[in-house]
Amino acid sequence: MAHAQRHPGSAGRHLPTTEELRIWRNYLETAEALQARLATRFLSETALSAGDYQVLLALSEAEGKTLRSSELAGLVGWERSRLSHHLGRMEKRGLISRNTCAGEARGIDVRATDLGLETFRAASVPHLRAVHELFVDAFTPEELADVGRLTGALRRNLGLGRDGTDQDGVGQDGRP
């Protein structure tokens, strides 16, 4: 795993300074506030929750608009039980369907329905507009490029690739 370069004068220091803690808290509070505002706005402007959108995004990008439930759980970063309950609610609304995997009695395939894909596409415009207004518009082009570089440094330090895979090309679910 790559390690961040230490700043001059920090050799041997293992605890963050007061200033480093202030920056850390500001980062966390800002990221949480941004996510909360995006989620609130998303729910008020669309027929989907942020969780619905995550699931439908993953399915919309999958071949055949279908994923194994275990793979989907890894892609959205949820425990399987949480995903199962959420999928049950989405299935009742007609957004997805679940079927036993062919040849595997224990595996479940999750597929986005036509209604789910249509709802996802309709929700994408207000979501992307909100991302632009609440995130992109907060920065000059130079600052946004800096955010990209800083995020890249964090992802490298955590062993994540640009697309959510680790440096060996393995996804958060353990699959390539």
Largest sheet features: 3 strands, antiparallel
Structural class: mainly alpha
Order of helices and strands: HHEHHEEHH
Supply the number of helical segments. Answer: 6
Condensed summary:
With 176 residues, this protein is mainly alpha-helical. Helices cover 57% and strands 7% of the residues. It is globular, with a radius of gyration of 19 Å.
How are the secondary structure elements laid out?
Layout: H1 18-45, H2 50-61, E1 66-68, H3 69-76, H4 80-92, E2 96-100, E3 108-112, H5 114-134, H6 141-158
Antiparallel strand pairs: 1-3, 2-3
Helix pairs in contact: 1-5, 2-5
Written description of the protein model:
With 176 residues, the chain is mainly alpha-helical. Helices cover 57% and strands 7% of the residues. The chain has 6 helices and 3 strands, in the order H-H-E-H-H-E-E-H-H. The protein has a 3-stranded antiparallel sheet. A hairpin with a 7-residue loop joins strand 2 (96-100) and strand 3. Helix 1 packs across helix 5 and helix 2 packs across helix 5. The protein is globular, with a radius of gyration of 19 Å. The two termini are 17 Å apart. The model is unreliable at 165-176 (pLDDT under 50).
Attribute tags:
single chain, 176 residues, mainly alpha, three-stranded antiparallel beta sheet, 6 helices, 3 strands, 57% helix, globular, disordered C terminus
